[in-house]
Design a protein that fits this description.
Helix content is 66%, strand content 13%. The protein is an alpha+beta fold. It folds into 2 domains: 54 residues, no CATH class; 77 residues. Strands 1-2 form a two-stranded antiparallel sheet. Strands 3-4 form a two-stranded antiparallel sheet.
Length: 144
């Protein structure tokens, strides 16, 4: 038998526990586990705690779908709230001021020029909310 590095065996363990390895690869992992008692103990503990097998196949917990739906709904709720707060803070921070003279607009400027601390804080809070919103959106799209 060729010597397989430990990190390769560790990488294969999730597939081993799920019963997804080919018979040859499964045999290699089992032979390695016979030589590494510490890793074998971890595998026994992991299979006893978090995995259940039916006919040698991985069976997920019965409420896995419900947990996934609840988690997704919570993340979508957070995403909506962050979008609202980001939009609000950005609108307040980027508000405009205008001066009129003789019925005409004389000057238009950002109000952050006149009130830098409170409106600057709004802009910073808005940027933080936008970052959180984008991170959640990326995570929910499966790219995070």
């Amino acid at each position: 038998m060729s010597t397989v590095p430990r990190h390769v065996i560790v990488d294969l363990l999730p597939l081993y526990l799920a019963g997804e390895l080919s018979p040859e690869t499964r045999r290699v992992v089992e032979e390695y586990l016979q030589t590494d008692e510490a890793l074998a103990a971890q595998v026994r503990e992991a299979s006893a705690e978090s995995f259940s097998f039916a006919d040698g196949r991985f069976a997920p917990p019965p409420d896995l779908e419900l947990q996934s739906v609840r988690r997704t709904r919570m993340l979508l709720s957070w995403q909506r709230w962050l979008f609202g707060w980001a939009l609000g803070f950005s609108a307040v921070g980027l508000s405009l001021g205008a001066t009129f003279k003789g019925g005409r607009v004389e000057n238009v400027h950002l109000m952050v020029r006149d009130f830098p601390i409170p409106l600057g804080a709004c802009l910073i809070a808005g940027a933080g909310c936008w970052l959180g919103y984008c991170a959640l959106r990326r995570r929910l799209n499966g790219r995070g």
